[in-house]
Specification:
The chain has one domain: Metal Binding Protein, Guanine Nucleotide Exchange Factor, Chain A. 5% of the residues lie in helices and 31% in strands. The protein has a seven-stranded mixed sheet. The chain has a three-stranded antiparallel sheet with strand order 1-2-5, with no helix packed on it. The longest helix has 7 residues.
Length: 138
């Protein structure tokens, strides 16, 4: 893997992947779906360039939850680690969870979205990042 390649894995290490291009943008999502999926007050993810993520090991263990609306949620069926979200029609990876990357992703979160649903038990940080009540504008 090249110097700009990111690597990552699930908790048990059965699913390993690489991202061959820098992440495009990263941000916090405070929607109820992310809260329930992660078990925390928010989820932080980085947008993946189309075609940049490749699974190195454990593709057969990647399971997908397809909500009625929104991106498909992909996770390791062995350990439950949340890995990435994907376009529900094409399966193309859209965003990877920063916590599953092995090292520094080379990018920092630059916004908070869906703050209208932020957890009442964990105040939003005073980090100076833009906040959007719903999805961040394109």
């Amino acid at each position: 893997m090249g110097d700009s390649t990111l690597s990552g894995s699930c908790l048990c290490g059965s699913v390993r992947f690489a991202i061959d291009e820098p992440l495009l943008v990263a941000g916090w999502c405070h929607c109820r779906r992310c809260q329930r999926r992660s078990g925390g007050p928010a989820s932080v993810q980085g947008r993946v360039a189309p075609g940049a993520l490749r699974i190195l090991e454990g593709a057969e263990l990647v399971a997908t939850y397809r909500p009625e609306q929104g991106a498909a949620k992909c996770f390791c069926s062995a350990c439950g680690s949340q890995l990435w979200s994907a376009d529900p029609a094409s399966g193309e990876v859209r965003a990877v969870r920063l916590g599953v990357l092995d090292g520094d992703p080379g990018i920092r979160p630059s916004y908070h979205q869906f703050v209208a649903y932020a957890s009442p038990w964990q105040p939003l940080p005073d980090d100076g990042l833009p906040r959007y009540p719903e999805r961040m504008p394109a």
